[in-house]
Specification:
5-stranded parallel β-sheet, about 950 residues, about 5% strand, 47 helices
Amino acid sequence: MSQERSKLLVQLDDLLIQISRGSGVVATISGSSATGKTTVLDVLTKRAASAGVMVLSVVSSPHERHVPYSALAQLTHSINAHSSANEVPCTGDAGTARPDGPTGTTTAPTLPEAQDDPLTVARRTYRMIAELASRRPVLITVDDIQHTDPATLPCLRYLTQRLSRLPLALVFTYGVSVDSQPPPILHDLLYRTNARHFHLEPFSPQGVKELAASQLPSLPPDRVIAGIHRLSGGNPLLAQALIEEHRLRVTFESAAELTSGEGDGAVPRPIREEELPMGPVFHRAVLAYLHRLGPRAVRLAQCLALLGDAATPVLLSQLSGIGTELLKRYTRLFSGVGALSGARLRQAGLRQAILGEMPHDKVTQLRYRAARLLYDNGAPPQAVAVHLTGIGPLDEEWVLPVLRAAAGQALEEGALPRAIRYLELAGECSSTETQRLSVKSQYAYGQWQLSPADSALHFLGLKDPILEGKLTGDDAWWIAEGMLFHLSFDEAVEVVDHLTDSGGQPATALHSTRMLMASEVPGVLDRLSRPLVATTVPATSHSELRARHSLALVLERGADEYAVALADQVFQSTRSRPTSQLSGLPKALLALCYADRIDAADKWYELVAADAGNSDAPGWRAQGECVGALIALRRGRLAEAVRRAETAYDRLSGPKWNVSSAMAVAILIEAHTAKGDHRAAAKYLTSEPPPALFLTRAGLHYLYARGLHHLATGTPYLALTDFQECGRLMRRWNLDTPALAPWRLGEADAWLRLGEKDRAARLVEEQLARPDTGLTRSRGMTLHALALTQADTKQLPVLREAFRLLEACGARYEAAAVLADLSRAYQRLGDNRARPTARRAWRLAKACQAESLCQSLLPTSTPRSVGTRGSVGPRDSYHAGQNDFDGLSESERRVAGLATQGYANREIAEKLFITVSTVEQHLTRVYRKMGIRNREQLLQATHTVDYKSA
């Protein structure tokens, strides 16, 4: 026992000394619930029994509070227990001795009836106790006297008034009540002038430390002790539970360390204060504590658990039926034992434990009352809806609007599973077909965000209600856009035509859908019976509409300054906004990308990706990843482009193609082709695309990417078909911007490979003649293509200008390709800048992980001796000494080849599975055999470029 309790027991021992001297005494041990009053009383009774004192014990209970003389009956039974052991003679009839048997035995005292005169019963009780005390000291203990039945209390008071000359001690424990005052008779009994009073305070930190030391094999750190004291408020019951939780946790972690083999010498991880264990042992202790406080405390705890963050003093008072003043007392008490944090229960597990012990029907009733009170008090819809989902369908007028508003708010925040639950319940609560259809439209939107690839049927199922005029307005337009996303163009056109012809449609929704079609599915616009009229977008419009407008303008006009400013405005206005307002960001990112503002697009993408990571909206995240892949591709980060596109494809692909999954496929084909991984690119070409794909912007990307793959794999005629079809569609849809897909440059490259240089030149000149103000990357790529159609003497300045533009806008892969061709041009002209330029191109291509381009820059023949450089003509010098590697062993040849590719010794060792020392030895022999001294000379002696491939 702690020193704090030991000091109290020393004082209580004085009571035993006093009665042993023949003097009576009354004492009260008070304290709040579960502070250890009963424990102290038990220790006292054991000490008294050891000292030869007769102990008579009574334990009062609230369940027997209304049973007359229930406590006196316990006292009588206690006397009988002693009598059966022949310890004392008993008197009959609470004061009248009736010897009926042998010496030393008597009949037991009879129990009073409820109708007996209280004073007579009290006198008989006194005579009975007095006779016992005349033979030996007596200790009478009454635990929880506040629950003693009113009939017994006069008997106890009668004893206290007449025990001064008896060796009798009356010791009561009294639980300080929060919600009731003691009756006058109990007050008179407890606060007599001759009574001694002891009050049990909660444990101090030192007391908690002593308690932990007595129950744990090793004492926890002081911060853990402090945390246990803070969470328990020093309450012994709760502190002991937390100590047990700590013991279980330490035991579990020790077993885990032994299992993982990390036990020996491992430094234990320090436990932070917020990680203090509050598991089922602690939860059960709190429940026991609440029940000891009484039914009001339990009811208040249930209301706290149910309301959660929505709890306010007013709502708690209304829901629990507890007055505000009493509520304040309970709140202070709960806070004192660490159960509350502000006005809410500290831990979710504790809330679940409190609600878990309630019967289901009681919880349902309480939830309904909570929902109604929250609604009547103007609480946010989600605070009300969270309780409605625990009740089930309700046929009440106010329920459906609350659920739909809560679902809309959850969709905005990206909390999709919660939004779906609200909408499912809203559907069950709908009383009319119009309501049900409107909920279904909102539900389809939520399902698209949650699982885009699997949402097609939710949209198609609402086509007929729209055509029948049962679903109108924004709900109907969104269904049309969902159909467009899933390439269900026949159904979408039918719906859009119906909505356009019916009139009275929201202007914003109509404009927004037109912008979407112009930028995402431009080929479908021609199929409408009545064209959607182009219109301006007000500055006050939603960010989604402004983003769509920006993208449509860039695709139509190129790097339009107004469109770029509009995209920037979307980013500025949607920072730290709800998820619904983030829906326009992918479109704004595409606008910057197609305006060749790649640096700006990359900067904004990093911010957008960080925001999207905090939301639970896979649909928006996947679209963002897809655009991020395009940005990475155009910045030459090929591996990153593949990773992002694969992530997007995994989230977007399903049984059928859709706009976004097709875009991801196109990026994967182009990125793998640039890397030189043609097998991986071909894998994404095995699935036959639906014809509807080629009515979309994503279809243009697909055609261009497939054309590049055909070029790289040696089928230029197939590439021509793809590039020409891409160009035909772009011209038809008035989207002929090289920033989308430079089809003319692709077709020109195909003609060059087929030996048709004049055709290629005409295409490049046609591209140069088109206005491309601000399209830096596109201009650089066009100049690169122009140089390849010109004579060697004219190529150098054009290639240098192309490289300057591409380097400035961050298009590293295209810049590396320009440097490769520049090095070849230098070589053909005999310029000694060929090798340094090729090495620079190789390093840049290596940084892009463009292995195919890297391989084209590696030597295609063996190194030559440095001493032979002067004897070789300028055009043929790179082909001299082709058999110089013949003098090297196979191992030396492998090491030398990797060294010329720029690999460090450690990287060579890892690739060839040999030691670094072995690599160094091979290189030393290579240098000696080739007549060179170091790696730099090895690089200089290497044929850096295969110009026959130019």
